[in-house]
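Curious: explain these tokens?
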Amino acid sequence: MNIGQAAEASGVSAKMIRYYEATGLIPAAGRKASGYRDYDAADVHRLRFVRRARDLGFPVAVIAELLGLWADPSRHSADVRRIAAGHVETLQSRIRDLQEMVAVLDTLIACCHGDTRPDCPILTRLEGAASAPEANPAAR
């Protein structure tokens, strides 16, 4: 199948397929006599694996490691588990960071009069001035 068909079958855009090939995440597809890429069912299966891993937020470098483990029949599931657990820790850290951002913005929004006056604690905070209120989750 051509790249468009492989993209449709795998859920990975043709542009991303080219990128994954260029970076070595997936092997370059075979070529037809016409020079067009030629994908088979195994290629589509690999692309689906990559797509599902990306949907879970794994970075490309980690997906490469997972692909290596997936292809290795002598792999240890402990290695896969370690990678997944590390990714969960990263996601939880990002969630905490996002929650802190929300808390800061909630505080700034609450302090903003939202009227015709020019003073605005949101802009003051973005400017970096020390007088803008900080989020204090304990004070809520």
